[in-house]
Amino acid sequence: MAISELVVESRTESGKGYAARLRKTGKIPAVRYGKQCPVSFFAVDRSAMERLLSEGGGSSLVALNVDGKGQNDEFLSIVKEVQRDPVSGRLIHADFYGVRYGVPILVEVPVVFEGKARGVAEGGLLQPVRRTLEIRCLPRKIPEHIVVDVTSLGIGDAIHVNDLRVEDVEFVAPVNFTIVTVQGVSGDVAVEGESEA
């Protein structure tokens, strides 16, 4: 996975008044925290943050360039949460989670279904059970997405976690957890693990 760079400014001020003033300048308050990662407070350009979200999504790795001096510590960051104004939809705050280069982390990545299932051509219905999967891997090994080829699935067939092979990635879900299945038109095919979704 590529590492994006985001220029941020360190900040010491906080509070609603400061945040409102900051937003009027086109910036938003942000914070970074994490296991063994010291809490740091930043100001981030709103448009740069929107660009980061549209290009990489929530699981992309980010190197925070603090005050234009480059990355000054051993942590990469992942966008943990963003807050938006409920009326305008504009970004108003961002949380980053700091991760060490060489320490495996848990992260959720999207599942992309590829191909046309044989069972769909036979009149069945493709039923995705999970559209994201939680994985454990080193920060630099986080995949953009997990590709699941459904071409060979007939009616009543399913793909489970133990059917997936992704190098340097450990899946957290149980091995028999169903990711996708093809159901007959009657919809009477049982899906293992569906209650866990």
Layout of helices and strands, plus pairs?
Blueprint: E1 3-10, H1 16-24, E2 27-34, E3 37-45, H2 46-56, E4 61-66, E5 75-84, E6 91-100, E7 105-114, H3 118-121, E8 125-128, E9 132-137, E10 146-149, E11 158-160, E12 170-171, E13 178-183
Parallel strand pairs: 1-4, 2-6, 7-10
Antiparallel strand pairs: 1-3, 2-3, 4-5, 5-6, 7-9, 8-13, 9-12, 11-13
Short summary:
By secondary structure, the chain is mainly beta. It has helices spanning 16-24, 46-56, 118-121, and strands spanning 3-10, 27-34, 37-45, 61-66, 75-84, 91-100, 105-114, 125-128, 132-137, 146-149, 158-160, 170-171, 178-183. It folds into two domains: 3-100, Ribosomal Protein L25, Chain P, CATH 2.40.240.10; 105-196, Beta Complex (RNA Polymerase Alpha Subunit, Chain A, domain 2).
Q: Which parts are unreliable, with pLDDT below 50 for 5 consecutive residues or more?
A: 187-197
Structural class: mainly beta
Average the pLDDT over all residues and give the rounded result: 87
Q: What is the CATH domain class of the largest domain?
A: Mainly Beta
Strand content: 35-45%
Order of helices and strands: EHEEHEEEEHEEEEEE
State the oligomer.
Answer: single chain
Q: Please bin the fraction of helical residues.
A: 10-25%
